[in-house]
């Protein structure tokens, strides 16, 4: 009896499962902290890969991607009938498709493995999960577009030559019939009116908000 008692006391404090849970509690918050605070760094490869996919899907219509902190804006060139060329922008938050990455890293770091096995597991898993994140980001952008070609979206910019593109989009947003209402953001750039630089945006419109170009407000 006394021998068994002494052997029990000298045994490990935690079993394998308790040790895993204890280390997971330590590693998971740290993984989420690093992942969220360096979000813009992790999103850059997602933006690049998603931009290549969109360029392949909409050759000639897709313009570029832009990063705003951890948001990705996809811009498409459209030419409404009787109007000058405009760009429609749809914003997507790719972070909502990447929660699995800090969970993976935290659990792998909590698992008792050699450094080589740990690095191999994280590396292979990241390739798969980044692909999943790119797929989710592209699909989200397509849903925001109403899964329509950019040429079909040119009707959002208006059909009258006397009308600036921003006003019809505001009316469309007020009616609630713009595609992808929940995360739709239309960024209109009138070539010639706003200059030839991609950053010279005339205005950003969100559903229910009228916003006119700055150089027309005083008129």
Task: Please describe the topology of this protein.
Blueprint: H1 2-9, H2 16-37, H3 39-57, E1 62-68, E2 71-78, E3 86-92, H4 100-110, H5 115-144, H6 166-175, E4 186-188, E5 203-205, H7 214-217
Antiparallel strand pairs: 1-2, 2-3, 4-5
Walk me through this protein's architecture.
- The protein has 219 residues and is an alpha+beta fold.
- The protein has one domain (14-217).
- It is built from seven helices and five strands.
- The strands form two sheets. A three-stranded antiparallel beta sheet has the order 1-2-3, covered by helices on one side.
Short descriptors:
219 residues, alpha+beta, three-stranded antiparallel β-sheet, two-stranded antiparallel ribbon, 7 helices, 5 strands, 13% strand, elongated, disordered C terminus
What's the gist of this structure?
Helix content is 47%, strand content 13%.
Strand arrangement within the widest β-sheet reads 1-2-3
Low-confidence stretches: 157-219
What's the end-to-end separation, in Å?
Answer: 96 Å
Count of DSSP strands = 5
């Amino acid at each position: 009896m006394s021998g068994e008692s002494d052997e029990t006391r000298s045994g490990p404090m935690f079993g394998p499962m308790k040790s895993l849970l204890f280390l997971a509690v330590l590693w998971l918050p740290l993984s989420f902290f690093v992942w969220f605070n360096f979000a813009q760094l992790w999103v850059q490869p997602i933006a690049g890969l998603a931009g290549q996919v969109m360029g392949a899907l909409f050759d000639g219509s897709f313009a570029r991607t832009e990063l705003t902190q951890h948001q990705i804006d996809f811009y498409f060139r459209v030419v409404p009938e009787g109007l000058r060329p405009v760009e429609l922008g749809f914003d997507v938050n790719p972070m909502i498709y990447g929660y699995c990455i800090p969970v993976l890293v935290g659990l792998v770091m909590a698992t008792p493995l050699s450094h080589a096995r740990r690095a191999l597991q994280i590396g292979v898993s990241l390739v798969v999960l980044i692909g999943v994140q790119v797929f989710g980001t592209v699909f989200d952008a397509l849903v925001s577009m109403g899964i329509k070609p950019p040429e079909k979206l040119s009707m959002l910019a208006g059909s009258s030559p006397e009308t600036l593109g921003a006003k019809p989009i505001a009316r469309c947003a007020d009616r609630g019939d713009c595609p992808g209402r929940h995360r739709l953001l239309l960024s209109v750039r009138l070539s010639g009116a706003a200059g030839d630089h991609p950053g010279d945006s005339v205005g950003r419109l969100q559903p229910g908000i009228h916003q006119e170009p700055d150089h027309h407000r005083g008129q």
